[in-house]
Design goal:
The protein is mainly alpha-helical and 257 residues long. It has one domain.
């Protein structure tokens, strides 16, 4: 087998594991064909949503005075989101109202990120359509939340910096409007690119062993180290997406700050 053929095989191997598909490939089993209305990444989102429902509806025990086990972990994360994201970016009153959205963002993204590290699953957050849909929700709250709180006039007032001469406003206001969509686009690419890049690096290192043989065994050590790093990245990217969403929403809802 020649060098170009090997490179092509490795490319196919990587794309097979990161691209969306209509089949779910499991180790030592034949690929499972999915219904026409469902894709692999869509299935991962459903599984993640189902897991979160089980965690918060059945595993989480709020009737205990002193939380233990998984209840303690979930409460610690919720308090962290409340104090470091919701309250600091939106204020206590509005932050508590936005907690359901922010917690949903954090736990849903975190769940999909961690699921993507398990070989039998796939990372839905490595799909730009998934991250784009999440960013669109943030954009909707940015615009809709500002209009709901401040009205149409207040929404456009938030896009007009104070003390700017009128001639310059004709240039500034269009840039501010474009900036709304740029922020959503940045949210989309940040999460998508970080998760996709990590998976490609891990799969490349593992694939080298298949292509070259035992000579490339040290790459497995690197793959394990990067896998450990990806666990940290999974938490970090969920936090960053939630934090930036809160900042962007709060910026338009409270332009005076």
């Amino acid at each position: 087998m020649t060098g170009p053929e090997k490179a092509f095989d490795l490319q196919e191997y990587i794309m097979h594991h990161v691209a969306n598909s209509d089949k779910w490939s499991l180790p030592f089993l034949s690929p499972i064909s999915l219904p026409e209305w469902l894709t692999l990444h869509g299935l991962m989102m459903l599984l993640c949503g189902g897991l979160l429902i089980v965690l918060f509806c059945f595993v989480y025990r709020k009737d205990r005075m002193v939380p233990t086990g998984m209840t303690n972990v979930l409460e610690a994360l919720i308090i962290f989101i409340r104090e470091n994201i919701a309250d600091s970016c939106l204020g206590k009153e509005e932050g508590r109202k936005m907690m359901p959205l922010l917690c949903t963002f954090f736990f849903f993204i975190l769940g999909m990120n961690l699921m993507g590290l398990i070989p039998i699953f796939a990372s839905a957050t490595a799909n730009v359509n998934v991250t784009g849909a999440l960013a669109f929700i943030t954009l909707s709250f940015m615009i809709g939340g500002s209009i709901y709180k401040n009205g149409i006039k207040g929404f456009f007032s938030a896009l007009i910096p104070s003390g700017i001469p009128l001639p310059i406003l004709f240039m500034i206001v269009p840039l501010e409007i474009i900036g709304l969509f740029v922020k959503a686009f940045a949210l989309t690419l940040r999460l998508f690119a970080n998760m996709l890049a990590g998976h490609i690096v891990i799969l490349t290192l593992v694939g080298l062993v298949v292509l070259i043989g035992y000579v490339a065994l040290p790459s497995i050590i690197l793959a394990v180290m990067i896998m450990l790093l990806e666990i940290l990245v999974a938490f970090l990217q969920a936090f960053i997406f939630t934090l930036l969403s809160a900042l962007f929403i709060g910026h338009l809802a409270n332009p005076e700050h």
